[in-house]
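Researcher: Go.
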Amino acid sequence: MRFRPCIDIHNASVKQIVGSSLADKGDFALDNFVSQQDGAYYAKLYRKYGLRGGHIIILNPKESPYYEADLKQALSALRAWEGGLQIGGGINAENAKQFLDSGASHVIVTSYVFKDGQIAWDNLEKLVKTVGRQRLVLDLSCREKDGRYYIVTDRWQKFTDVELDDRTLDTLSGYCDEFLVHAADVEGKSGGIRDDVAIILGKYSPVPSTYAGGISSFEDIEKLRVLGSEKVDFTVGSALDIFGGDMSFERIAGYK
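Model: Structure:
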């Protein structure tokens, strides 16, 4: 179990947002924190502490007027620590190699693999053929519906019919190196973790997995350690002091 840091980029700034508020219309999100520093600053910080396997997420869609500025920030972060960070946001089989060549260790993909509520097997196989299973992370971020958790796409706005469960994790593990799972209902709210999501990942994920969403204290981390059977890595965003919160980055970096 180790800490995986993040660099979330929205409207040309490194931010922490309330995940469930994100909307493509008007490039809207409720901001918890807007940094005065750029992506490269955080990449260098994570490199200093040896925190490999963190993720950069571009939160604006390609159609957004902010996308090119987001991309510039992301690429500068990748160059600041070549091979140290993963990247996601609008990635497909056509552009994935560009990000790997720019310094990403892995590409993170959701919407390209899930179309019309289902797994787009042709797209997934094309992606694996293009970048290789060992450099692919599948983002299985989810939201709760009727007591179950379903994978959501398009910046967590659209539900799929694919449930986050043992069968899904087992099947998709054959196509990727890791899973990244944001519990989108609590993302950015610093109100505690989604217990059920942690249990599912700890019990059923055959490959390394990273949980994100709601961690606001070191007690939450210890709870995740227990529920995730000490196997699930974690991300902390809004609660960190480097993003305006109260949790010590230096202390949490020791979980690597």
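Model: The mean pLDDT is 92.
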